[in-house]
Design brief:
By secondary structure, the protein is mainly β. The protein has one domain. Helices cover 7% and strands 38% of the residues. The chain has 3 helices and 13 strands; from the N terminus they run E-E-E-H-H-E-H-E-E-E-E-E-E-E-E-E. An 8-stranded antiparallel β-barrel has the order 2-3-8-9-10-11-12-13. A 3-stranded mixed beta sheet has the order 6-1-7, with no helix packed on it. Strands 4-5 form a two-stranded antiparallel sheet. Strand 2 and strand 3 form a beta hairpin. The two termini are 21 Å apart.
């Protein structure tokens, strides 16, 4: 399990802030467009387990005579931001702050996913089976324990897991936090365009094995920032594009 911390910051009013009490279950964000991702239904018999912030890269490849890049995988570190959601306790952010969190991290922090050294002998890099088995551009590895600063004040988020694609190009999520472990392989059920044209789509993902859901039946990727592939007109080859998103786990 990775073990570094994310330091986030927001400019808060000098007079302080109201401390909200934990309230009802957070509701999934909406794009505000013509299409929305379907929310879990009562008949699904699931509840919210985690809201995490994923920070990493989307991987693509461009082939000759093909104008559009093909997605080949992703790698991200997952940080628990459940208690930062509005109304979820003393550390909760405002709605505007929470909705801007992914963009703020993408713009103001060093990406935790690092290219592996060319000779594979970088003693300052922690090897990860997740990174080395992930499909797409790379290889990549997770860094050693270190703080990741995003301008500002004193919010520290401990990583709770990893997102990657395995050697069969199946998306995997692995978490181990206060609300238990999740180890789930998923498939895409639905997608809608992000309201930000420069961000990857919002997704509803479902467990590939309903009989063994791995702690989560549904995973939603929302509030995306970055991650859009480059144009393939320049040259063929692989590329990796930084991105952030919140991932909501229901199980």
């Amino acid at each position: 399990m990775v073990a570094w911390y994310l330091v986030l910051a927001f400019a808060l009013p000098a007079l302080g802030r109201v401390t909200p009490r934990a309230s009802a279950t957070p509701q999934l964000p909406e794009t505000g467009g013509c299409e929305e991702l379907p929310s879990p239904q009562e008949s699904d018999k699931v509840s919210l387990k985690y809201i995490t912030l994923g920070f990493g890269v989307q991987n693509y490849t461009c082939k000759e005579n093909e104008p559009k890049a093909k997605a080949t995988g992703a790698l991200a570190v997952l940080y628990d931001v459940t208690t930062l959601h509005p109304g979820q306790g003393p550390n909760a952010l405002s709605s505007d702050e929470f909705n801007a969190l992914t963009k703020k991290v993408l713009a103001g922090a060093a990406n935790p996913i690092k290219p592996k050294s060319m000779d594979g002998c970088d003693s300052d890099t922690k090897k990860s089976s997740a990174a080395t088995s992930a499909a797409g551009a790379g290889p990549f590895e997770f860094p050693p324990a270190a703080e990741l600063a995003v301008k500002g004040a004193d919010l520290r988020l401990k990583p709770v897991g990893e997102h990657f694609f395995d050697s069969n190009k199946v998306p995997i999520f692995r978490l181990n936090g206060d609300k238990g472990e999740i180890d789930v392989a998923v498939k895409k059920l639905d997608d809608v365009p992000s309201p930000d044209k420069d961000a990857v789509a919002w997704l509803r993902l479902g467990s590939k094995d309903a009989a063994a859901a791995g702690g989560a039946k549904f995973v939603y990727r929302v509030l995306t920032a970055g991650g859009v592939s480059r144009d393939c007109s320049s040259a063929p080859g692989d590329s990796s594009v930084p991105y952030t998103a919140t991932y909501w786990f229901f199980g």
